[in-house]
Specification:
The protein is mainly α and 197 residues long. It is 77% helix and 0% strand.
Length: 197
């Protein structure tokens, strides 16, 4: 790739670079960076969310299908983010003033896969548990990606929007399936009553 084209990534986002600088300057202390790295490892390839869903399925057997849905939703959202990354091909922040505090599996930035899978998992877990998990889980993960210097703010916001849309699509599909099952059971029950009479 032409180096001048590669350098244009920072040139296109001067305002976002300034936000990265401001966030890192304000809160990127060693304890915060350490916590952000832990979140990064947890969210890598959505594996932490798959692990939580697996434990939930083992412990909460009556709702095993819903817990499996959390895993499917997190992994599916992550996969969608990877596809979009390879289409957009936005390079990660590389301005000299931005400190990169964790390694990444790719050099592509938009959207943030961590933000995508975390938002999808949080929405699905919130629906399953009745807890306000999106408000608790999503902002720290989004902020952590900026603290670590591996994403622009627009990357994490777009990832979160994609994750929310992915979770909404999965919940709508589950609702349709449940409705279809209920209708089939109703038809079976009516046939059984008619034959009994």
């Amino acid at each position: 790739m032409n180096p001048s084209l590669q350098d244009s990534g920072a040139d296109r986002a001067p305002a976002e670079v300034k936000i990265l600088e401001a966030v890192q300057g304000a809160i990127a202390t060693p304890p915060v960076i350490s916590a952000a790295r832990g979140m990064s490892h947890f969210g890598e390839h959505a594996l932490g969310w798959v692990g939580i869903a697996a434990v939930g399925a083992l412990v909460d057997k009556p709702r095993r299908r819903q817990w499996a849905g959390v895993a499917v939703g997190a992994v599916g959202a992550h996969a969608a983010s990877i596809v979009i990354k390879r289409i957009v091909r936005r390079p990660r922040p590389h301005a000299p003033s931005v400190q990169v505090n964790v390694s990444t599996p790719s050099k592509l930035s938009f959207p943030s896969s961590h933000a995508t899978s975390t938002t999808a998992a949080a929405v699905l877990l919130g629906k399953l548990t009745g807890l306000p998990l999106p408000a608790v889980l999503v902002p720290p993960m989004l902020l952590s990606r900026v603290v670590l210097g591996v994403h622009y703010p627009s990357d994490v916001l777009a990832g979160s929007a994609l994750g929310a849309a992915s979770a909404a699509a999965l919940l709508a599909a589950e609702k349709r399936l449940d409705s279809d099952r209920t209708r089939r059971k109703g038809r079976t029950g009516r046939k059984g009553t008619a034959s009994h009479e």
